[in-house]
Amino acid sequence: ERAMLTRRTVLGTGLAAGLAAPFAGIVAGHAATSGPARTIRIRPAPADVRLVPEPYGLTPTWCFNGAVPGPELRLLPGEPVRIEVENGLAEATTVHWHGLRVPNAMDGVPHLTQPPIEPGERFVYEFAAPDAGTYWYHPHMRSHEQVGRGLAGPLIVEEPSPPRVDRELVWMLDDWRLTQAARITDDFGSPRDLSHNGRVGNTVTINGRVPDAVPVRPGERLRLRLINGANARIFALDFGDQRPLVIALDGQPVTPHEPPDGLVTLGPAMRADLILDIAGTAGTRSAVIDRFYRGSDYRLVDLALDGEPLRAGPPDWPIALPSNGLPEPDVKTATRHDVVFNGGMMGGMVMQQMGAGGGTMPEPPAMRDMMMAGRMWFINGVAATGHLMEPVMTLERGRSHVIAMTNATAWHHPIHLHGHSFRVLSRNGEPTRHREWQDTVLMAPRERVEIAFVADNPGDWMFHCHILEHQAAGMMGVIRVA
Ligand code: C2O
Ligand code: CU
């Protein structure tokens, strides 16, 4: 079981600050926000892990420190850390700190921000996470296979004074394509996955296990941190009898609200923090169901209510999180940019034509050649396949920018920008209700989404679909801030 040490329990048991974590278990935060950097070690390597309960066997995976997910890293805002990565894989890798606004050289993108970490080599990441929130880390090298085989872990930046709750749970969701013998299928990067909705699997895990019922106590207040670590699976979670309130998206605080249509929708890489006041009586169960894939609802887990009610009604403790103080984009004076996403299968044909504002399409090669070359998806007419990439756009540093994005495909895409969080201004011309900050925004087929942010972090930043098969098949580019 994954016991969770909090910063508070570590301090309570008198463990010293500066604790270096061993190559296993949990890395707990400490209270210092200045002074010498704490060292954390993570080692990606193959390991056999129990994802599925007996009588199934162990699953050979690639993972961090021998566990799926990797160790839960807990930091404080501004706390300097040194993260030593030793590559125990048979192939090169890197680690990306998804959603953290770190300096470009620490962003973990091979060939763009650092050389790949070759087998047996080490790389040291040094940064201080600026913003409290729920994040995660994963390789950025052949991600569709490296992440798909288990390389991912949660990264929590704690608020210095978090809102009061009875219990905090982190649920890292993942989705696997397993054989009857609980082995990961080897069909990574199949043409079908590349050109359709990615490698959607057949087995969902929470924190690396097909979950048993989760015991909860009537009346207790939970903070649930959800992380979608899947390659391609989109979750639309229905909490049934429970009434979650969303208090953060992609780590950034949002006005507390009930999820739209009662569903907590998370594309790959997206996170949500929920407040859950457990309603119902002891002895009953409350199911959490993924309703994203119509006609194939997936019963993710049951909450098993047990024990005397903790209190009569929900406590009146405040739940709004303090703002991280991100720079506010000035939409009126912002520079505007257009991005069009094309490609993918539709009616058996790879969509090649460009939408408005998308520039000129290079002479389209025959569909078969294109698929053989793995080019299925385009950003403004370009399908990235190598690692030498001309920027899709260059943003003037320090200025506000609006990017108007059009999804001209028949598929969903969670679009991720590195190095920044952005406000989601509108969808199909309608202003969003909460102008939420995100680092990954899920775009529905044919949807138009406008985002805005201050380009304050200089460097070349990846801009890509987080369905990792789409990324592998061309749906990525570089946004330069200079
Ligand atoms: Cu979660 Cu470019 O990554
Ligand atoms: Cu995509």
From TrEMBL:
Organism: Oceanibacterium hippocampi
GO CC annotation: outer membrane-bounded periplasmic space
EC category: oxidoreductase
KW Oxidoreductase (keyword) present: yes
The keyword Metal-binding is annotated on this UniProt entry: yes
Gene: mco
Taxonomy, superkingdom: Bacteria
InterPro entries named in the record: Cu-oxidase-like_N, Cu-oxidase_2nd, Cu-oxidase_C, Cu-oxidase_fam, Cu_oxidase_CS, Cu_oxidase_Cu_BS, Cupredoxin, TAT_signal
Domain Plastocyanin-like: 59-160, 168-258, 365-481
Protein name: Multicopper oxidase mco
Keywords annotated in UniProt: Metal-binding, Oxidoreductase
Enzyme Commission no: 1.-.-.-
GO molecular function term, any single one: oxidoreductase activity
